[in-house]
Amino acid sequence: MALHSTIEWTESTWNPVTGCTKLSSGCAHCYAERLALRLQAMGQRNYVNGFEVTLHPQMLCLPLKWEKPQLIFVNSMSDLFHEKVPEEFIHKVFDVMGRADRHVFQVLTKRSARLAEVAPSLQWPRNVWMGVTVESQDFTFRIDDLRKTSAAVKFVSFEPLIGPVDNVKLKDIHWVIAGGESGPGARPMRRSWATSLRDQCEASSVPFFFKQWGGVNKKAAGRELEGKLYDGMPRYLENRAPSLLFP
């Protein structure tokens, strides 16, 4: 049975790797680290190492057993392109995603340089969506690295959005997510940062998904932007070929 996710833009999670290390400013209040340490304290065997990068080969074939087609967020508790994840293991993950072609897999990384390095050696099934996280203007270079891949759908997650991001080059980008930071110590997101990204997406005809305002109580803060929900998604056709003609 798939592990249901409460993340608004996906349906399930699959973690063949757990654990990570902080890389940039967006990592300061990592939700995955908090959760991993909690699971370790509860005795969950996949988290016996806490938040240390750990491979779980026994988890590799899980999506092949899930009969219901679904959106699957890959490594919600890690980063598939972490330097401690062997390239051979990355290939195994991509092999499973290609074989489980009834699903759509969403892969998200902050380690765009390694992504660009490994990408040419990977087979890119059309059901794999590849994304990078950009938390502020300082990290827009990750979008350029993403563009170097052969992913059929490329997306950018501006979450946690901790600063303005202006003049984003959205050529060959098929989806944008934006959201504020949540949980203890959450840094506030200004309305203008979110509306600017929305407007840039509308100008480039890129689907825009506003995930949350965040804060200590993200449920109370909600996810309406100027009184409206933004749930843009790439259109994915029945034949599993992504359409680049967005709604």
Task: Note down, in words, how this protein is organized.
The structure is a single chain. The chain has 247 residues and is of the alpha/beta class. It has one domain (3-221). It is 24% helix and 17% strand. The chain contains seven helices and ten strands. It has an eight-stranded mixed beta sheet. It has a two-stranded antiparallel ribbon with strand order 3-4. Strand 7, helix 5 and strand 8 (153-158) form a beta-alpha-beta unit. Helix 4 packs parallel to helix 5. The longest helix has 14 residues, at 191-204. The model is unreliable at 237-247 (pLDDT under 50).
Helix/strand layout:
Blueprint: E1 3-4, E2 12-14, E3 17-18, H1 31-41, E4 54-55, H2 62-65, E5 71-74, H3 87-99, E6 104-109, H4 112-118, E7 128-133, H5 141-147, E8 153-158, E9 175-179, H6 191-204, E10 208-212, H7 218-221
Parallel strand pairs: 2-5, 5-6, 6-7, 7-8, 8-9, 9-10
Antiparallel strand pairs: 1-2, 3-4
Helix pairs in contact: 4-5
**Distance between the first and last residues' Cα:** 32 Å
Report the strand count.
10
Q: Please, how many helices? A: 7
Strand order of the largest sheet: 1-2-5-6-7-8-9-10
Q: List low-confidence stretches.
A: 237-247
Shape: globular
For the biggest sheet, the summary is:
8 strands, mixed
The structure class reads alpha/beta
Mean pLDDT: 94
Helical content, roughly? 10-25%
Radius of gyration: 17 Å
The helix/strand series, from N terminus to C terminus, equals EEEHEHEHEHEHEEHEH
Domain count: 1
Quaternary organisation: single chain
Q: Bin the strand percentage.
A: 15-25%
